[in-house]
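USER: For my understanding, would you kindly supply a protein sequence with its structure tokens?

ASSISTANT:
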Amino acid sequence: MKEAQDHKLALLAPLLLVLSVAMPPLGGGLAKDVSQGHDILALSFLRNALAALVMLLVVRPSFRDLTPVQWRAAVALGAALAIMNANFYLALARLPLGVAVAIEFLGPLGVAMIGARRIADYLWPALALVGVLLLTPLAGTERLDPLGLMFAIITAGGWAAYILLSRRVGQAIPGMKGLALALLFATLFTLPVGLPVAGPYFASPEMVAKVVAVSMLSTLLPYALEFVALRHVSTALFGIMMALEPALSAVVGLLLLGEVLSLSAVAAIALICAAAVGSSLARR
């Protein structure tokens, strides 16, 4: 019976992987749409809070059994999550969705450089950097908000920290308990700036449903699908699929938000996607 279930999951794994990669761009597009006229940091807080609530109910971690080392690891990962999500939403308020997602990919590309020994390993981050430079005023781009670009770069740093700290949390705290605790601390860190201005998101059942959808598409469902898919596909394939996220975000931005990108922005996103694919293949 278990072998039959594993076989079915192995067949479904590529589809689950595609869904896990496609959901965050949809969540980002919906977040940008829902937050129009409202405080976007409040939406970031609610996203963290809903995800934390569901994870805590499912995982049910015991707080009394945690050691000081485990507490510190969970707090650090929660801080990285809070910085990453809050700054990504601040970038979304000022930049096209595809551009914001493309720039944040500098984070994992930077992590990929750690321990690099070959000159070729530095080619991919350099290619991504060229893509980012195409999005700045240095390339004659004037309509992209400089503050939005700064928030997107901070998001990239937060993502890099999240990747590195996730390894430490995974070693210190077994199972999904570490992620549940990190989401709880991310909620607490964003509570002071998000909760006081969160009222408009509870104005109607439709708005509440959209906020829940943002949290599900951006956090819980992708994590759950990745958790299952990664047992049956290679990490190289996962990295390549993840590398397509900026391009998917640009498509979502066009179809859902009507964001038409300039040729230089399209070229920049293509370069960053190519860098992410190349980096994934090199790491294999």
Residues 18 and 241 are 7 Å apart (CA to CA). The chain is about 75% helix and 0% strand.
